[in-house]
């Protein structure tokens, strides 16, 4: 979802909400990041994308070996692995759920936690997981608005 008021890096063509946003320039596209992955990984990524793509504001782009979901700041990072997706999202509290296999304070900001879960097959993404992702989306969006 790219809006008219975005800045596009002239080097890597990634879109951002903030002009001259600091980032790692990566020539990869989302297709590049997903290239060569098995069907189950592609299908579960599609399922995840359908679940969150309409949330706004949002820009979805590729970084080095990852797909970054940004609503002013990165709120979710998806890393396609050999046979699954690693999905990481941020929230201000440590969440507890059977699907979360790791949650820790983020080393770039001591006031937020990064949570990870893995998706292997279509159907692994549950309504509870989508609710947690929405909390992460809203948390990051709210933290940006508080600073303005």
Quickly describe the structure.
27% of the residues lie in helices and 26% in strands. It is α+β, with helices and mostly antiparallel strands.
Give the key terms.
Aspartate Aminotransferase, domain 1, globular, 26% strand, 148 residues, alpha+beta, two-stranded antiparallel sheet
Structure description:
This protein has helices at 30-34, 39-52, 127-147; strands spanning 7-8, 15-16, 59-63, 66-70, 74-80, 85-91, 102-105, 113-119. The protein has one domain: Alpha-Beta Complex (Aspartate Aminotransferase, domain 1). It has 148 residues and is an alpha+beta fold. The mean pLDDT is 87. The strands form two sheets. It has a six-stranded antiparallel β-sheet with strand order 3-4-5-6-8-7. A two-stranded antiparallel sheet has the order 1-2.
**How many DSSP E strands?**
8
Q: What percent of the residues sit in helical stretches (DSSP H or I)?
A: 25-40%
Ends distance: 22 Å
User: Which class in CATH terms?
Assistant: Alpha Beta
Q: Give the number of domains.
A: 1
Largest sheet: 6 strands, antiparallel
Overall SS class: alpha+beta
Mean pLDDT: 87
CATH fold topology: Aspartate Aminotransferase, domain 1
Strand order of the largest sheet: 3-4-5-6-8-7
N-to-C SSE string, H for helix and E for strand: EEHHEEEEEEH
Global geometry: globular
What low-confidence regions span 5 or more consecutive residues with pLDDT below 50? none
Fold topology:
Blueprint: E1 7-8, E2 15-16, H1 30-34, H2 39-52, E3 59-63, E4 66-70, E5 74-80, E6 85-91, E7 102-105, E8 113-119, H3 127-147
Antiparallel strand pairs: 1-2, 3-4, 4-5, 5-6, 6-8, 7-8
